[in-house]
Amino acid sequence: MGKCGELAKAAKAAKTAKTAKAATSSPTFAIGDQGRVHQLQSVAGQKLNGQIVTIEAAVQRETELRYQCLFTDGTRKNIKSSNLKEYVPVTSTSKDDSKNNKNQEDPCPICMEEVLIHDADSFRRYTCCGKIMHMACSVDMSESNLNHTQKFSCTLCRSKNPSEGSKEDLARLNKWIKQGKAWSMKMLGDRYSEGVGVNKNDKRAAELYTLAANLGDINAQFDLGYMYANGQGVPEDCKRALELYTLAAEQGSMDAQFNIGGMYVQGMGVERSLNKAKQWLTKAANQGHKKAIEGLRRLG
To answer: Which sequence spans correspond to the domains of the chain?
Structure first.
């Protein structure tokens, strides 16, 4: 059954459930919506409470509506509609909202200056407490006269830094994912994309990037856009790639701005336009993107 057929089936099931007494106060979902699990009473169910899930299908059982849910760990379970709450991710990309998103992070604990999260290569994040630090400050600390324990522990909570992909690293990320932290979904997606500590799995990486992107994570939006542009873990879709790049670009991602410029130069998913290409490349160049600067020089 195609997606349109699934949506029709879900709508029919939701309509039936709306008239059923057991579901009169329960929210209804469409395919692709996100929800939060709550009020499960069993021992196993209580471990699922609070987790964010993606709705994949609706299953009507007499007067009881259940949803097939994709959990962040890749598992799928049928959950009663009464055990799902509506979850609305924050995806606004206005200039004011973008600024607020950046300022939600604490300053770097070393230099105490703001950390701009739109450049994923400029900072590192500690999975123990979720705090971030400028990458340059992290390098300076590792080259300092501090002892080994001080160099390779969190400067804030003093927890030892686990190696990427280690059992402790993955456990920490999954803990934060259950709390709905977009950055942890992005980081675990990176592990699957790169095959670090887990088997390389582009499809699983794309699922995690999607969850993080829907929550407004700028770097997940860029990475997911790249996957759609290249058919990596998802079907190739230049228009979807452009949508995701635009979300990231409007939050300040110079890499996304550069890629959008390239898409307009080549006419990928859009009508070819050198004027629009120059506009996007200029935005990236103004942030110091070397390839964008070179691209503008070539376009003249």
So the answer is: 3-86, 95-252
